[in-house]
Design a protein that fits this description.
Elements (H helix, E strand, L loop, with lengths): L38 E4 L2 E4 L11 H4 L7 E7 L5 H9 L3 E6 L3 E6 L1 H8 L4 E6 L19 E8 L5 H10 L3 E5 L3 E7 L3 H5 L4 E6 L10 H4 L2 H8 L7 E6 L19 E6 L12 H10 L17 E6 L14 H10 L4 E4 L11 H12 L4 E5 L28 E6 L10 H4 L39 E4 L3 E4 L16 E4 L2 H22 L6 H10 L6 H4 L3
Helix pairs in contact: 8-12, 9-10
Length: 548
C-alpha cells in the first residue's frame, strides 16, 4: 500500500538553513525543487540531500530509529529510478517500501546491509526515517496535550500487527479498530511521539469521522439529496481531468490527502512533470470533482468522493498548456483507454462563439465513442463593453462551442460574507450599475457576470447548464507558487470561474452514471447523461442571466 509519509524535521538530521519545526504548508516548493533530484520532498518538510548532515545530539525518541536490525531509512538514488537499481537494493536483503520524491524509497535494513547499499553506484544519499517523520502535521497542535484523541496508525507490515498492538496497549492506548496494517487508536495526546517510535509504525494521523457533505455548492445543485436518497458517491466511476498539474505530481503519499489512493493514472503530457507548481488550478479542479474532504472532516469534499481519477497534466515550465495535443482525440483516447468515461476540461480559447477545429475534434470523438461524456467550461469572457448594465452576448469559448460536449457556465455561489463586488475585481469590465456593485457570491439564483454567454455563431444555445463558480473552496496544491483567489487554510483555497463550475457538474455526472449502472443496469451513453443533466436543471430569469 502507499503510505502518507508526511514529515517534520524535529530532532532529525537537518539540512542547513532550516529549523526543527514542521514545514509550513502556506509556503510552497519552488518549481526547481519539485523536480530536483537532490531534494527530498515530504509533505511537511523538504531538504537538499547534498547539504544534509547527521546531527549527533538526537533526542532519545529519535535515536530509537538508529539502533537494531531492520530499521527504516530513506534511500535516494542518483536519478530517475531504474528497476535494476531497486533489484540491486533487494539483493542485499533490504526491503523496499513506499516511494518518496525525489527518486527515493523508504527501505528497511540493518547496519551491515546499509553499508552494502551505501557503496552502490546508483545510490547518492541515505538518511534515517525518523519517528518525527511519521507524524502528520495536523497532529502538531495536539501532540503533547493530555486530552484523549483518536488516531490512525499505519504499519509497514501487517505481520507486525500483534506486537505493535501490544505495545500500544502498553502505552495506555485503546484499539478502536484493527485491520491488519491499519489501526484506529484512542490515546492520550502526550503519547503520540511514543507511538511513532514503535518499530514498524509507518505513519500516524488524526482520525476524522467521515460525513457525506459538500460546503455550499453541492447543496445549491442538490447533490446531498441525491447522495442520501440513492446512496451515490461515485463508486465504480473513473473521471479524467486534463489540467495544469496535480499537487506534488507524484502518485504516492506526498499527494493531497483528499485525492490520495484513488488516482488510477497521473500522466505528464508537457514534459515538465505532473506537479501543480504555478496556479494550483488543476488540484483545485480535481478536488471539486472527487476530493473526499479528508482534511476538512468531509466539509469540502467533491461531488463524487469515491470516484477514481485519471489526471493528464498539460502545463509546461512556462505556465503554458503546451501538453494539450493538436488533435484532441489523442487526449480523450488516452483517458478512454484507462477506463475513464467522463472527461472534464476547465480550459479553452476566447473564440467568441466560433466552431473551431477543436470543437470538431470533440464532436468527432464523442460520435465515435458514444459512452464518453466530455465537459468544457464556457469561458470567463462575460463583459459589459457598451456600458448598458447588461452582460454582452456572444462570448462563448472553444472547444465549448462543440455540439456534443456538455458546456458549463458559472452561477454565483452563496457566501454572503464575501464582500467583493464585480467592480472591485475588474472595474474596466463591469463599469456600470447594477453589475458594478453586485456582490460576487450572494445570489445562488444569479449568473456570474464573468461567465461567457451564447448563443454560438451558428445559433445554438450555449452553455448547456450553469453551476456555482464564485468563491469555490477546493483542494490546494502544496507546491504551487500562486494562490488563485486566496487560501482558506493549508489544505484548501478559494477560486472563481467557469473552471470551478465545470468540475462540479462533472462530479455530479458521475453520480448520474453510477445510478444508471447500479439501479437501471444499463451503461449510459453520453447523450443520455447530457440529457438527464440538462432536463434536471431549472431556468433562471433573464435578469439573473444578465448577471444582476
Amino acid at each position: 500500500m502507499l503510505f502518507p509519509i508526511l514529515a517534520s524535521a524535529s530532532g532529525s538530521s537537518l539540512p542547513k538553513n532550516t529549523t526543527g519545526s514542521s514545514f509550513d504548508h502556506s509556503s510552497s516548493y519552488s518549481s526547481a525543487t519539485s523536480n530536483d533530484g537532490r531534494y527530498i520532498l515530504l509533505k511537511a518538510s523538504q531538504f537538499n540531500t547534498e547539504e544534509a548532515a547527521f546531527v549527533s545530539s538526537l533526542t532519545s525518541t529519535e535515536s530509537i530509529s538508529l539502533s537494531g536490525d531492520g530499521e527504516y531509512y530513506i534511500v535516494q538514488f542518483s536519478g530517475y529510478i531504474l528497476e535494476e537499481w531497486k533489484q540491486d537494493v533487494r539483493d542485499t536483503g533490504a526491503t523496499i517500501f513506499d516511494y518518496v520524491p525525489n527518486n527515493a524509497f523508504i527501505v528497511s535494513m540493518n547496519s551491515s546491509v546499509k553499508a552494502e547499499i551505501e557503496i552502490l553506484d546508483s545510490v547518492q544519499w541515505i538518511g534515517p526515517y525518523h519517528p518525527s517523520y511519521r507524524i502528520s502535521p495536523s497532529l502538531s497542535s495536539i501532540s503533547g496535550e493530555s486530552d484523549q484523541i483518536e488516531i490512525l496508525v499505519i504499519l509497514f507490515n501487517a505481520e507486525d500487527n500483534e506486537r505493535i498492538f501490544n505495545e500500544i496497549i502498553g502505552q495506555g492506548g485503546e484499539i478502536v479498530d484493527n485491520s491488519g496494517d491499519l489501526m484506529r487508536v484512542r490515546i492520550d495526546g502526550t503519547k503520540i511521539s511514543d507511538i511513532a517510535a514503535i518499530k514498524g509504525v509507518s505513519w500516524i494521523e488524526e482520525y476524522h469521522q467521515p460525513v457525506i457533505l459538500n460546503d455550499i455548492a453541492a447543496g445549491i445543485i442538490n447533490v446531498p439529496y441525491v447522495q442520501d436518497t440513492h446512496g451515490l458517491n461515485g463508486s465504480g466511476q473513473v473521471i479524467a481531468v486534463a489540467d495544469t498539474g496535480l499537487d506534488t505530481g507524484f502518485n504516492d503519499g506526498s499527494m493531497h490527502d483528499d485525492l490520495e489512493g484513488r488516482i488510477d493514472a497521473l500522466i505528464d503530457l508537457s514534459g515538465n512533470g505532473a506537479a501543480d507548481i504555478f496556479s494550483g488550478h488543476g488540484t483545485h479542479v480535481a478536488g471539486s470533482v472527487l476530493g473526499n474532504g479528508s482534511n476538512s472532516n468531509g466539509q469540502f469534499n467533491g461531488m463524487a468522493p469515491e470516484a477514481h481519477l485519471v489526471f493528464q497534466a498539460v502545463e509546461d515550465r512556462y505556465g503554458r498548456l503546451s501538453g494539450i495535443p493538436t488533435h484532441l482525440s489523442s487526449l480523450f483516447q488516452q483517458a478512454y483507454d484507462l477506463n475513464a468515461r467522463i472527461h472534464t476540461n476547465s480550459w479553452g480559447s476566447s473564440d467568441h462563439g466560433q466552431y473551431t477545429s477543436y470543437s470538431q475534434d470533440v464532436d468527432l470523438f464523442t460520435w465515435e465513442h458514444p459512452d464518453m461524456l466530455i465537459l468544457f467550461s464556457a469561458g470567463n469572457d462575460g463583459v459589459d463593453s457598451n456600458y448598458d448594465g447588461v452582460i454582452d452576448l456572444d462570448s462563448m469559448g472553444s472547444p465549448a462551442t462543440a455540439k456534443n460536449c456538455l458546456t458549463i457556465g458559472a452561477s454565483e455561489n452563496y457566501r454572503p460574507d464575501m464582500s467583493d463586488t464585480y467592480g472591485d475585481r475588474k472595474p474596466f469590465l463591469w463599469p456600470t450599475e447594477p453589475i458594478y456593485s453586485d456582490k460576487m457570491a450572494n445570489n445562488s439564483e444569479g449568473i456570474a457576470a464573468f461567465s461567457s454567454r451564447g448563443p454560438t455563431d451558428d445559433g445554438r444555445i450555449k452553455p448547456d447548464v450553469v453551476a456555482p463558480g464564485t468563491y469555490i473552496i477546493s483542494t490546494r496544491s502544496s507546491v504551487a507558487t500562486g494562490q488563485l483567489w486566496g487560501d482558506y487554510d493549508a489544505y484548501y483555497r478559494y477560486s472563481s470561474g467557469t473552471s470551478m463550475s465545470t468540475p462540479i457538474v462533472a462530479g455530479s455526472a458521475a453520480l448520474v452514471r453510477q445510478y444508471y449502472v447500479e439501479y437501471e443496469n444499463i451503461t449510459p451513453s453520453a447523450a443520455l447523461l447530457k440529457a438527464t443533466i440538462i432536463n434536471g436543471a431549472y431556468d433562471m430569469s433573464p435578469g439573473q442571466y444578465d448577471g444582476v
